[in-house]
Amino acid sequence: MVTITDNSSEHNAISDIIHLSEEMKKGNLRARLSAEGYGGDMYKLITSTNSMLDSILHPFRDMNKVLQRIAMGDMSASIEQEYSGEHEKIRNAVNGVADITRKVHEEISRMVDAAKRGDLANRGHPDLFTGEYAATITKINEMLDAILTPIRAGNRILQKIRKGDLSERVEIECVGDHARIKDAINAVHDWLSGLIVYVTRISDGDMAAEIIQASDKDQIHGPLVRMRDNIRSVIADVDALVKSGSEGRLMERADPSRHKGDYRIIIEGINKTLDSVIVPVHEAMEVSKGYAGYDFTRRMDAGIIYPGDWEAFQKALDDVGHHVSAAISVIAKQVDVLNSATAQASSSIRDMSSGSSLLAEIAQNVSIKAEQGGDSLSQILRAMEDLAINVSDVSTRTSEVNQISSDTNTLSKKGSSLAQEAEQGMREITSSTDVVTGLVHEIMEEMGKISKISSVISDIASQTNLLALNAAIEAARAGEAGRGFAVVASEVKALALESRQSAENISEMIEGLTKKTQEASDTMDKSVLVVRDGGKALNETLEVFNMIIDSVNTVSLQMDNVAKAAEQQAAAVEEITASINEVNTLISGTAKDAVASAAASEEAAAAIDQISEQISMVNAAAESLNAETGKFSV
Q1: Sorting pLDDT into bands at 50, 70 and 90, what band is 362?
Q2: DSSP 82-103
Q3: Kindly report the CA angle at 315 between 310 and 318, in degrees rounded to 5?
Q4: 84 φ, ψ (degrees, to nearest 5)
Q5: Is residue 302 exposed (0-12), middle (13-18) or buried (19+ Cβ within 10 Å)?
Q6: Taking a C-beta distance cutoff of 8 angstroms, is the pair 241, 270 a contact?
Q7: Are 112 and 480 in contact (CB under 8 A)?
Q8: How far is 57 from 75, CA to CA, in rounded Å?
Q9: Cross-strand pairs, 295
Q10: What confidence score (pLDDT) does residue 3 get?
């Protein structure tokens, strides 16, 4: 077979055009025909073909550049050169794509800027576009609604939680990451609810409360449990001190090394309070023991400094000793005067008894020897005069003794009144102290509740801060779409930090007030015990004064009886004297009168015996009163 090779220019041009076509199919739009080797019309064909390709492809190259710039994010790109025919239509179409793309970008940028400003309700305007562009804006709006509706619901619940309102949970239907956010917020809600139950039980004094550990990384479970255990330990030490105090073991102290921080300060403060109370209590007990043993010279040690109300208590207790000592001293002096008066009265009675005996003897002699009665009668008259003087002296001294008894009774009543006033003062001090102690205890309970609420607020703020941090992390992971949520998370975090700081400030103030209130409460409790002991001592003193008053009343009654007997004796003496005078003038017929005189003398002797008996009773009463007052050291 013979092959014939055609080397004509037409054949070569056709081959070159076919080759150019293949290059064009491959996308090599810069390929051109080479005019070398051609001439004449074929040369014109080749160059015209190249010119045609240039005129066709040049607008496409401009379009390609614009589209590439748009693809690279340059929304300002456009074809500025004007063409004709179909190329102009294509240019307008490309520029239209650039314009609509730029408007869509501007609309989306506007929505993003609104989200950055926190305007999450801002949406695109699909009515500004047509076709798929309008559908794209609509879908973006739907996407924002789908993203922000759960976030709004979660934010609403978080806002309620931030305000302490745990009455609601996130209940809307969610899927995907929104479902996980919903579950996380509800988990926080449930955890906080359990925390509130735990803290409420502790605030109500239920130290058996338990809280479940959320996870191995739960950073609040440990501190909450330690807080409960520390409170338990403090309560145990306080109970031990209370029990020791109620059993009278005032030297018992709690071990502060078992506690840390302010708990240790509380225990140390209680110990210091007990130390400051034990000294004046001990002094007061020693003085009260002295008073109970009738030793009113005892005083609280003046070399010890008694702060605050203890100074007034020291003065009041010492004043009791001073006043009672003064009253007892006066009573003792009056008793001595009474003893002296009764001794003189006894001597006078003995003299009167002797005179009565002598009078009886003389009367008998007169009845036997009336004729010799002149001289004897004179002697009887002298004896009767002495008897009258003695009776008058007894009456005078009896009046003095009666006055002394009255003065003693007045002083005893005055001492009893002073003791009653002191006892009433003790009762008022006890009543006021009980009221103040109750108020201090109520204030401490309220402060404890406020401190626990502040702790709850601080813990909630910490958890909200962690939640805001987690939300910020999730927003960062979401990229551009999560910027708006990041802004919300930042605001929540800021509010959580402010809440936590405020709660900590409140806790610090409450802890200071609680410590001072506890010190005041313990001091008042000890004051109540001391005042009650003082009241017992005053009751015993008042009983002694009542005994003195009874004894003085007895002496006064007996002295009244002595005075009445003395008056009877004086009347008898007057009758005897009259009889003797009658005998002296009628000596011859006085035998019968002498017998009457003897009978009168016997009556006088009986009256003298009665007076002597009354004086003995007065002596016994005076000795009893002297023995009672002798028990006191003043």
Answers
A1: low
A2: ---THHHHHHHHHHHHHHHHHH
A3: 120
A4: -130, 160
A5: exposed
A6: yes
A7: yes
A8: 23
A9: 633
A10: 42
- Give the Cβ contact number of residue 486 at 10 Å: 19
* Cα→Cα distances 481→110, 172, 475, Å: 14, 21, 8
For residue 33, what are its two tokens? 């025909």
Amino acid in the structure at residue 618:
V
Token pair, residue 133, equals 């562009």
DSSP secondary structure string for all residues of 155-167:
HHHHHHHHTT--S
Nearest to 347 by CA among 390, 291, 383: 390
Question: What is the pLDDT, as a whole number, of residue 597?
Answer: 59
Q: How far apart are CA 135 and CA 222, in angstroms?
A: 54
Query: Mind giving me the DSSP string for 428-441?
Result: HHHHHHHHHHHHHH
Helix, strand, coil shares, percent, the chain, to 5: 80, 0, 15
Q: What is the largest CA-CA distance in the chain?
A: 232
- Length of the chain, in residues: 634
Q: Is 129 helix (H, G, I), strand (E, B) or coil?
A: coil
Cβ burial, residue 631 (10 Å; 0-12/13-18/19+): exposed
- Two structure tokens written together for 470: 């987690």
Radius of gyration of the chain (CA): 62
Nearest Cα residue to 313 out of 463, 534, 516, 483: 534
How far, in Å, CA of 79 to CA of 58, rounded?
12
Q: pLDDT value at position 587?
A: 58
Residue 228: is it exposed, middle or buried by C-beta count within 10 angstroms (0-12/13-18/19+)?
buried
d(CA 494, CA 67): 46
What pLDDT does residue 429 have?
Answer: 61
pLDDT at position 209 over 80: yes
Distances (CA, A) of 261 to 147, 256, 396, 483, 514: 48, 10, 83, 43, 15
pLDDT of residue 266: 92
Contact 193, 166 (CB under 8 A): yes
Query: Residues 70-103: pLDDT tens digits?
Result: 888 787 888 888 888 888 888 888 888 888 888 9
407 token code pair: 């003065």
Contacts with 419 (C-beta within 8 Å, 6 or more apart), sequence order? 320, 324, 538, 541, 542, 545
The distance of Cα 35 from the centroid of its chain, to the nearest Å, equals 109
Structure tokens, 549: 């008053």
Sign of CA dihedral 341, 346, 352, 358: negative
Question: What band does 110 get if pLDDT is binned at 50, 70 and 90?
Answer: very high
State the Cα–Cα distance between residues 192 and 330, nearest whole angstrom. 77
**Which tokens hold the place of 285?**
């007990």
Here the tokens at position 119 are: 């305007």
Residue 383 tokens, joined: 């004896």
pLDDT for res 124: 92
Q: Which residues pair with 633 in a beta bridge?
A: 295
**What residue spans of 1-39 are helical by DSSP H?**
9-25
